[in-house]
């Protein structure tokens, strides 16, 4: 079945994209660790107990500058334009391998536009990075001033920023927010590149279907969208009740759009449709062609799961102790953009 073949290949590549996201998140966290050390050094220089208002203002100004530079580095570390190009090219290859027809790429101008400043939840990624930077600047100043007002020790004020065992500091939340934004940037770029490629090939692709992970961490919004389908103009197909949306629709969203191909007869090919339903061997034996990430990965061979997760994590996945969500959180093996090009 052509649709399931395309779905499986798209999901297989999405697993590689999740591994790329894990690598990008790790690189962003390294920058955040450097920023944390810099802020800690600022706080430990001098004696806050004897600091004047002018001294405190100078300290906060130095911290503001360090935070702005740190977030600028994190935002610049993710090359979304290069990612959009790679995803479009890979989508072209996937369709070409399944449908014996010419598959076109979106124009360079469109790919440049999609990758320049990806829109996340209605705002460009640059605005999100600026907002996170401003939030941390505000929280740093507030924690320092609060600590001084409370006559806290210098060590305690540092703990307000970097935390201590059992008590997170403001940098813990900042790191979590950075990871979420990196992941959302990657998934937005990937889904937009795919959708643009589907639309460019409207002669062989009739629409798109929403696929959600549907594990215990999937939100109700994504669960409700699972299996909904639209034509390439965003109009509802038979059985669809929800207006078209493109994932991700929230931070941490793992959903994807997969293509609905036209039949070979519709595109003028006088050859029989493939009958292979895309099933793969799994630890449970042949598994029915369900449409979730979790079901997809269970359809794959143990060798494939080992390659994606590593042997130890693959065993945990097959025993039900980790889910596809763990790939997003960095449990899986990370990929670089160059490695993604080769997968």
Can you describe this structure?
The chain has helices at 2-44, 53-77, 80-98, 108-116, 125-149, 154-162, 170-200, 220-225, 293-299, 302-309, 311-318, 325-328, 337-342, and strands spanning 119-120, 123-124, 205-211, 229-231, 256-261. With 343 residues, the protein is mainly α. The protein has one domain (2-342). A hairpin with a 2-residue loop joins strand 1 and strand 2. The protein is elongated, with a radius of gyration of 23 Å. Residues 277-291 and 327-333 have low confidence and may be disordered.
The total strand number stands at 5
Q: What is the spatial order of strands in the main beta sheet?
A: 4-3-5
**How many helical elements?**
13
Mean pLDDT, all residues? 83
Please give the alpha-carbon distance between the first and last residues: 23 Å
List the secondary-structure elements in sequence, H or E. HHHHEEHHHEHEEHHHHH
Note the main sheet: 3 strands, antiparallel
Spatial shape = elongated
Q: Report the C-alpha radius of gyration, rounded.
A: 23 Å
Question: What attributes characterize this protein structure?
Answer:
elongated; 6% strand; 3-stranded antiparallel β-sheet; 343 residues; mainly alpha; 13 helices
What layout of secondary structure does this protein have?
Elements: H1 2-44, H2 53-77, H3 80-98, H4 108-116, E1 119-120, E2 123-124, H5 125-149, H6 154-162, H7 170-200, E3 205-211, H8 220-225, E4 229-231, E5 256-261, H9 293-299, H10 302-309, H11 311-318, H12 325-328, H13 337-342
Antiparallel strand pairs: 1-2, 3-4, 3-5
Helix pairs in contact: 1-2, 1-3, 1-6, 1-7, 2-5, 3-4, 3-7, 4-7, 5-6, 5-7, 10-11
């Amino acid at each position: 079945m052509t649709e399931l073949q395309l779905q499986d290949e798209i999901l297989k590549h999405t697993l590689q994209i999740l591994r790329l996201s894990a690598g990008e998140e790790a690189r962003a966290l390294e920058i955040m660790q450097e920023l944390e050390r810099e802020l800690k050094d600022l706080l430990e220089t001098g004696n806050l107990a004897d600091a004047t208002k002018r001294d405190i203002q100078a300290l906060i100004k130095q911290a503001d500058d360090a935070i702005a530079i740190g977030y600028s580095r994190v935002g610049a570390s993710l090359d979304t334009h290069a990612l959009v190009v790679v995803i479009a090219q890979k989508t072209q290859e996937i369709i070409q391998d399944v449908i014996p027809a010419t598959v076109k790429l979106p124009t360079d101008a469109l790919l440049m536009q999609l990758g320049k400043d990806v829109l996340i939840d209605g705002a460009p990624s640059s605005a999100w990075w600026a907002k996170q930077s401003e939030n941390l600047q505000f929280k740093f100043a507030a924690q320092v001033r609060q600590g001084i007002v409370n006559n806290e020790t210098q060590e305690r004020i540092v703990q307000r920023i970097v935390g201590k065992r059992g008590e997170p500091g403001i940098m813990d939340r900042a790191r979590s927010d950075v990871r979420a934004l990196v992941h959302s940037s990657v998934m937005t770029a990937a889904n937009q590149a795919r959708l643009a490629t589907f639309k460019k090939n409207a002669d062989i692709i009739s629409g798109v279907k929403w696929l959600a992970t549907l594990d215990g961490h999937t939100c109700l919004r994504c669960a409700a969208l699972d299996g909904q389908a639209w034509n390439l103009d965003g109009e509802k197909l038979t059985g669809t009740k929800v207006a078209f949306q493109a994932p991700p629709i929230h931070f941490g969203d793992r959903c994807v759009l997969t293509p609905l191909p036209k039949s070979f007869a519709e595109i003028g090919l006088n050859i029989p449709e493939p009958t292979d339903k895309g099933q793969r061997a799994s630890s449970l034996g042949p598994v029915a062609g369900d449409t979730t990430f979790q079901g997809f990965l269970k359809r794959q061979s143990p060798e494939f799961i080992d390659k994606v997760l590593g042997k130890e994590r693959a065993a945990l996945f097959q025993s039900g102790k980790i889910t596809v969500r763990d790939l997003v959180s960095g449990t899986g093996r990370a990929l670089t953009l160059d490695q993604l090009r080769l997968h």
